[in-house]
Amino acid sequence: MSFKVLISDALSKEAVEILEKVKEFKVDVNTKLTPEELKKVIKDYDALLVRSATKVTKDVINAAAKLKIVGRAGVGLDNVDVGAASKKGIIVVNTPAGNTISTAEHTFSMILALSRNIPQADQSVKKGEWERKKFMGVEIYGKTLGIVGLGRIGTEVARRALSFGMKVAAYDPFLSADKAKELGIELVDLNTLYKTADYITVHTPLTDETKHMISDKQFGMMKKGVRVINCARGGIIDEVALAAAIESGKVAGAAFDVFEEEPPKNSKLVTLGKVVLTPHLGASTEEAQMNVAIDVANTVRDVLLGCGVRNAVNVPCVDPEMYKVLEPYLKLAENMGAIQAQLVDGHIKKVKIKYVGELLKYDLSPFTATIMKGMLKPILQDTVNFVNSLVIAKERGITVVESKTAEVQDFASLILVEVETDKMTSLLCGTLFTKVDPRIVRINEFYVDCVPEGTMLMVFNKDVPGIIGHIGTIFGRNSINVASVSFGRDEKGGKAISVWNVDSDIPKKVLDEIKSSKNVQELKLVKL
Prior knowledge:
Elements: E1 3-7, H1 13-20, E2 25-29, H2 35-41, E3 47-50, H3 58-63, E4 69-72, H4 82-87, E5 91-93, H5 100-116, H6 118-126, E6 144-148, H7 152-163, E7 167-171, H8 177-183, E8 186-187, H9 190-196, E9 199-202, H10 216-221, E10 226-230, H11 239-248, E11 251-256, E12 275-277, H12 286-304, H13 320-343, E13 348-357, H14 365-380, H15 389-395, E14 399-405, E15 413-421, E16 425-433, E17 437-443, E18 446-450, E19 455-462, H16 467-477, E20 482-489, E21 495-502, H17 508-515, E22 520-527
Parallel strand pairs: 1-2, 1-3, 3-4, 4-5, 6-7, 6-9, 7-8, 9-10, 10-11, 11-12, 13-14
Antiparallel strand pairs: 13-15, 15-16, 16-17, 17-18, 19-21, 19-22, 20-21
Helix pairs in contact: 1-12, 5-7, 13-14
């Protein structure tokens, strides 16, 4: 059998050679295709390799008659319609670890450049000036570096900071206290980090929750003279608020490699002398570019030759025919992990997964990996996949315990996911109705019947009359359509829960109104 492979963005020659050496492959390199040209030619190819320039849109996916895999040489998948690919059974893979060292080194370079005013001094000398006092710097030795997000890149930044004699404090709800201690890092909450750090660097994905997570309120908490670094994603730090904090003297300086708008034509940061800026260079090293290209070439080669899947972001490592059978359960499993990630407070220590009933006739390892992918996805985004989720959990000090029982009680098959943090324990039970429809049937002590999809609001309250009608009225008054609602309680007049599936986002003012309602104790907003 022969396969046609299209490389539509520039990859290293080493990566191209990996594919060209396979006698079953015909490899075409065409980096000048327009979107319309790509749509026309893609029908003939079995594999497509891209960086960030090629946009693998829904139209391109739909035009692909033979396509089996899309390989992205890099981490982010903004240029690939993963949903459309999944619907057509096309595997999408990325390279989550290939640029870790380069981005960590760039971040630390920015910290040093910011501390010693290196770019500004360089420009001054090149102008023929010699103004040593003007560029007085600060030492980083003994200073506290606050890291928001301690994934692979954040961890590498921490290691470099420790070697320079810095103290490191980090916020990451998916890192255990024991693992942090092992790394020599103090694990703190966000407010403590903001109040105590001399330098703050962010290493999280850009999501609805992290967009502008550092803005006016957070700058108000910080030490006078703090320095702020962003080499992760533009938009995590509010650039307007940062510019104001620099001008007021609260923030001594900033170093940015990524921006809300790229190039940052309209950002006030460009006009400020205390800011060091680079044009999204985090992964721009010869080594990183070669590593991600070689990684994706090896992965695509192995998939086409039937030698296994690595770094798949949309399918677990399951035989294609078996995947059709297991897909509803795997979808349930991933959503259960994602729900737990958004329900729990504190740092996750242990995840206990139990399988009951008919599920036991299948290999359970893909389910466990899928649950952990769902759980880690909200904070790690495209860096976690079906293959590496258990490895990442172990790296972060999260213990995963799997058990099973053939004893059937209320349901023919059941998945139980219990998460233990340093603050609480949360239990979730899920099953399938009619073998295809996923349901959550228990949340902690409450038995419910809710669909794990879209936007879900979980309201914990006292079991008294009128609460359901009151919440429904608030939704109606704010033009929020309710798709379904499920109720549960531990005993009459005791504690209760209502789970609302709604058709749109819930604005903060609506959440605040519900939360302030009489007898409402707690809200949890879940987005799937």
